Amino acid sequence: MRRLTTDATGAITLESDVATTESVDASVTTRQKIAAYIALTKPRIIELLLVTTVPAMIVAAGGWPSVWLMFATVLGGTLSAGGANAINCYIDRDIDQVMPRTRRRPLPMHKIEPRRALVFGAVLGVIAFVWLWLTVNPLAASLTTAALLFYVFVYTLGMKRSTPQNIVIGGAAGAMPALVGWAAVTDGIELPALVLFGIVFYWTPPHFWALAMRYEKEYAAAGVPMMPVVYGKAETTRHILLYSFMQLAMCLAFFSTAQMGWIYGGTTILLNGAFIWMAVGLYRDPTPKRAWGLFRYSIYFLTLLFASMALDTLLI
């Protein structure tokens, strides 16, 4: 059996699977296998992606979209993101085997055969595309599938193991759900949607670089060139601070382009102010504890920021 991988130049090739990844623990029960397939989709990451989809739909509609449209869009986005994550687990199972943070994922734990995980991810992606095409619109379906393909081929296979800028480029995939939500309502892409994309795009690097600082030794052991591993903590914290200001600029741009009111305006100032304050603290004292604090805050930041957009649209 063979699998997709990349060589030193970043080219996509095939190589034989490591024997230990092919064996499945015979004691795994059916219930455990079902739980393992769910775990392959990385539900917590999907939740974060959907946080940007629904508010984008509300802003695009100028109020509540139809319940059916929201359901169809969220379901399609969930299936596609789950498929992308499952394929990512297949490709990165050698890395996951090395890193203690990921060692308990289904493939390193030998709960699912690698080939089945790959097929599962591909099937989810196809179902998501067909579902969105039939129930939402072709643009939303195409954007969703483009995000999956970008995440798998550009980020996971092309960039993750070859450049410390991996998460900067790969962040485009995570920013796509905002475009999908907008396109689901309007069947088009307008300037506010592009600014929403920019917010998530500039949020992603400091979010993941903070995580990488916490697990720097694990990434180094796995041979993943995350920025803290290649450039060191000082340079990483400078980049985090720079992207924090770029994130603020995009949030302010959305206030103007989408004609937001005081709920979003006040919230974005407070949230970005706290983000920059924590980034400055990390720059002055680049410890794993501060990095972990910024990482955790960044999750609340994105959730509250997009919730404020929705509330602003619905109440003002």
Note down, in words, how this protein is organized.
By secondary structure, the protein is mainly alpha-helical. The chain has helices at 19-22, 30-40, 43-61, 67-91, 93-98, 114-135, 138-159, 166-186, 191-214, 216-222, 227-231, 233-257, 262-284, 288-315; strands spanning 2-6, 12-16. It has 2 domains: 1-152, Tetracycline Repressor, domain 2 (Orthogonal Bundle), CATH 1.10.357; 190-316, Up-down Bundle (Four Helix Bundle (Hemerythrin (Met), subunit A)). Strand 1 and strand 2 (12-16) form a beta hairpin. The longest helix has 28 residues, at 288-315. The termini are far apart. The model is unreliable at 1-21 (pLDDT under 50).
Identify the CATH architecture of the largest domain.
Answer: Orthogonal Bundle
Give the DSSP E fraction (strand runs of 2 or more residues): under 5%
What is the top-level CATH class of the largest domain? Mainly Alpha
Q: Could you say how many structural domains there are in total?
A: 2
Tell me the total number of β-strands: 2
Major sheet size, sense and barrel closure? 2 strands, antiparallel
Output the CATH topology of the largest domain.
Tetracycline Repressor, domain 2
Overall mean pLDDT: 92
> What is the helical fraction, as a range of percent?
over 70%
Q: What is the terminal separation in angstroms?
A: 58 Å
The whole-angstrom Rg is 20 Å
What are the secondary-structure elements, in order, as H or E? EEHHHHHHHHHHHHHH
Strand order of the biggest β-sheet: 1-2
Assign the structural class, choosing from mainly alpha, mainly beta, alpha/beta, alpha+beta, or little secondary structure: mainly alpha
Overall spatial form? globular
